[in-house]
Amino acid sequence: MEQWKKNLIILFAAQFLIRISTTTIKPYLPFFLQELGVNLPEKIAFWAGLLSSVNFLAQALFSPMWGSLSDKYGRKLMSLRTILAIGISYLFMYGVTNPYQLLGLRFLMGTLSGFNAAATALIATTTPVEHLGYAIGVLQTGRTGGTIFGPAIGGIIADIFGYRGSFIIAGCITLIGFPFILFGVKEEKFSNDVIKVNEDITTDNKGKSKKKDFGFGEAIKIINKSPIILFMFLAIFLSQFGLQSMDAMLPIFIKSIYRGTRLNTAVSIIFAISSVAVVIMAPYWGKLGDKIGHQKILLISIVGSGLFTFFQVFTNNILQLAVLRFLSAGFDAGILPSAHAMIAKSCPEENRGSVYGVASGITAIGNFSGPMIGGIIAALIGIKSIFPITAALMLAGAAAIYVNGRMIKNNEIQS
What we know:
This protein is mainly alpha-helical. It contains 18 helices and no strands.
């Protein structure tokens, strides 16, 4: 088996396990808070929201730093560091005695995370360019696939071992990937030599070549000189913001249109349907992008997701919502593989970790701001207003990318 395929399989599995451990715990944090002495409903809601968002906030602040370090010391090393940090953080959560300790550990875990950025940079560096979109799409399915199984497994584990036992098991599940990456993943070494990307970056003012810099500052130079990357950041933000703003309010919306007696089951099915759509479609969009161009797939995905998101405002039963959620998620599945593939083609290999670190920070900002702004919109205008507003933002983003399409297309041709 070719090494890039072996890397992909191992990183896919590790990503899958990390997402299982994360979603095994997160849905049941409100119930665990009661064990920590938080009993009033309004306080439970406050702490549950805070515990969920603080992780994203920490990721937004520290992901660029970890991305820069991955360029300097290796993406494989950063992947191993992340797995170890997340696994140990969960083990420590077993012993918390109050919500402040839990909040601190959640923030610490977010601070030390960054597996997706490191793994994406490693895949983008070691995978042949003609398979890049497909490989990133497969990596994304690992993330989404874990989201499907995590909550179900978490419920069973919590019933058998209790909420504290769930932390131990989540930590162990995360750490499973460590030895496989350590011994199975091989990162091609790159030398700190001149790479011709922008002459003023790789040469001094006398025209003499100089060693390529690593780090966040160099990534910012590359991003500033490549509007393509900025527009890919926009696409990533819109995707995550749209998903999180709707997902936060979706259970309430489902309750307003569901006429059955098993509301929790209906909510679980709707969320699972979206995840299944991503698992099915992400590799397909990535592979198709490798053939016909990632810019085309990106625009199709954003427009398709935006349109089917807008149509959800007209739903009045659970079946209609299920169909439209599947279609919108299926199109949304093409955004991240296309954006990440285009980022890889727009920056030198030895700086991809730094750039993907910034991209991971953008993702975290979308995850953090989506539920908060979605909640404000729902409170001021109504829950249904989230669908057309989110759709409008996505379509506006697609228009902005389309206007700059010639520049993006030229970049793909040169690559």
